[in-house]
Amino acid sequence: MSKLSIVVPVYYNEDTLMDLFLDLRAKVLGKLEEYELVFVDDGSGDNSWKIMNQIKELDDNVHLVKLSRNFGEHAALLAGLSVCTGDCAVTKQADLQEDSELILEMYESWKKGNKVVLAIRRTRDENALKVFFANCYYSLIRKYVNKSMPKGGCDCYLIDRKVIEVLERLDEKNSSLTLQVMWAGFQTDMVYFDRRDREKGKSRWTLAKKIKLVMDSMLSFSYAPIKLMETIGVLFDIGALVMFVFILIEYFTEGVPILGWASLMSVVLLSSGLILSMLGVLGEYLWRTLDASRTRPPYIIDENLKAKEDKSEK
Question: Which of 140, 177, 209, 293 is the most buried (most CB within 10 A)?
Fold first, then answer.
């Protein structure tokens, strides 16, 4: 008998948690051989932890984890995967934008021998601007990081116990867990779904977090930023050489004096800005190296309330 763990990262989801549990119970849980629900509170400042405890009273298979502060969704998912006990685990967002029955489809694919099952967005019933920038991100990832990234992108996936063990050994911070799963390279299948718009609660997926995801994805899995800096440097060198040759030709053939303090300063300022930007990219790489060398854990568990069949601990 195989056991499925459903890992749900929670961050200010008091409005949707109970609805999510009721939806899972009605559509999914009764059709599974054995299951475990792992909710991870990623430092929520609302009543999410209280509602999670209410859910635990309704189901003996609920496992609650509370992190000491907000570490981010990557860390919350990793914490949930590290404590889950299933033969495989599926990640589930708490915002009710994916149909819960998708879990059953992914679970059946795993039974057929697939170690990784990605849930790919077929359509998105969301703001057009948000969809546009999301598609830009996934296009960027496909071109420079991982050519296997689906066009619709994916947030949810099911992974085998072997893949979970690989992720625990990686123990990376400032990274993308989805890209780590794809990097592992196990036999992969894809299922498709239509993503609904958010009906309850407020999204905490801020612009700053989106920018950080782009940087983490590029700097952790690709050296394209360094290649870009090298290319810009070469192009500027060629441009400067061509400009210098033209100035000398005009000076010796037509007697045009070498003037232009304003234009010279513009070039100097532009070059300085590019140099500082490049140093900033290199600094990002160095900071990530420093952060990894300090060996600080990607998350800290404050409370760990296991399912009823296990011994509870705090």
Answer: 177
Residue type at position 120: I
HSE-CB for 41 with a 13 A CA cutoff? 26
Residue with tokens 């889950």: 84
Q: How far apart are CA 19 and CA 156, in angstroms?
A: 19
Length, in residues, of the chain: 314
Q: How far apart are CA 8 and CA 191, in angstroms?
A: 19
Point out the residues of the chain with pLDDT beneath 70: 198-199, 201, 204-205, 256-263, 265-266, 309-314
Query: CA angle 201-79-198, nearest 5°?
Result: 15
* DSSP states along 150-173: -TT--SEEEEEHHHHHHHHHH--S
Q: Which CA distances in Å does 78 have to 108, 146, 253, 279?
A: 23, 21, 69, 31
Q: What is the pTM of this model?
A: 0.77
Q: CB of 110 within 8 A of CB of 158?
A: yes
SS (H, E, C) 258-296: CCCHHHHHHHHHHHHHHHHHHHHHHHHHHHHHHHHHCCC
pLDDT of residue 314: 39
Which H/E stretch holds residue 252?
helix 224-253
Instruction: Give the span between the Cα atoms of 88 and 77, in whole angstroms.
Output: 14
Buried b (16+ CB within 10 A) or exposed e, 219-253: bbbbeebeeebeeeeeeeeeeeeeeeeeeeeeeee
Q: For residue 263, what are its two tokens? A: 């234009």
How many angstroms separate the CA atoms of 161 and 140, rounded?
30
**How is residue 130 written in tokens?**
């948000």
Rounded to 5 degrees, what are φ and ψ at 151? -60, -35
